[in-house]
Design brief:
248 residues; Spore Coat Polysaccharide Biosynthesis Protein SpsA, Chain A; 10 strands; 23% strand; transferase; EC 2.4.-.-; Glyco_trans_2-like
């Protein structure tokens, strides 16, 4: 039997898009998966929608946070419950291509890869393509410090190689923190050029660029504990490169 993939999905007031996200998981050609959803105290009907899916698919599991702790805490709760060898990530407004798991797991097994990622497309609220993000074929701990090239919705890690790893319990940049933690233990992560996921892009993000930069600065200083000189060095490259990702 194929190894199990545990899919980690945090939710918070996700009723608008979560049905599409879950359906994209259920359409996977790779069948041996579990979808672990931790709801972070939603106030809409998110949990009701998830329970409807549970009635028709026993692979879907729902957990509820006692307090709103943010996406990182919700993901960590699901990781703790995960039984799969492979840990994959999908947010509740994003989607996967049907062969996403099949192609990526085959790639990881054949090449003994501890952490992998893929290309993905950005989409608007209506699902229209807004461009392709093509990551480098390979990245390392030192390279990732300059900017996060691993889309969270595309990432999978192999617990048989790196063990079970968790995200730092911060409100932003949790995924980058996890990838760096994994890359301390393996030489590199590897990417597929196939476009295997769709990231729902906030068209209003431009006005929030200063907030993003603030979070990234805090990540270097408070999470990685870099001094002012290290932080300034990497922050400069992040600010320069972070909004000009390679597109097809």
């Amino acid at each position: 039997m194929d190894p199990m993939v545990s899919i980690i999905m945090p939710t918070y007031n996700s009723s608008r898009y979560i049905t599409q996200s879950i359906e994209s998981v259920r359409r996977q050609t790779y069948l041996h998966w579990e979808l672990l959803i931790t709801d972070d105290c939603s106030q809409d009907n998110t949990r009701e929608l998830i329970k409807q899916f549970q009635q028709i698919d026993s692979r879907i599991k729902l957990f509820t946070s006692k307090v709103n702790g943010g996406a990182g805490c919700a993901r960590n709760n699901s990781i703790a419950e995960a039984k799969g060898r492979f840990i994959a990530f999908l947010d509740s407004d994003d989607m996967w291509a049907p062969k996403k798991l099949e192609l990526q797991i085959e790639f990881m097994k054949a090449n003994k890869i501890g952490l992998s990622y893929t290309a993905y497309q950005k989409i608007d609220s209506q699902g229209n393509s807004q461009g392709i993000i093509t990551p480098p074929k390979q990245t390392t701990y030192s390279k990732l410090l300059y900017g996060n090239v691993i889309g969270c919705l595309t990432a999978i890690y192999d617990t048989a190689i790196v063990g079970k790893k968790y995200m730092p319990t911060i409100r932003k940049r949790q995924d980058m923190g996890l990838w760096l933690d994994i890359l301390k233990d393996i030489p590199h992560a590897e990417g597929l050029s196939d476009v295997l996921a769709s990231y729902r892009h906030d068209s209003g993000m431009t006005k929030n660029k200063f907030k993003i930069l603030k979070w990234q600065w805090a990540f270097y200083r408070d999470v990685l504990k870099f001094d002012i000189f290290q932080s300034s060095y990497y922050f400069f490259f992040y600010a320069f490169n972070g909004f000009f990702k390679n597109k097809k």
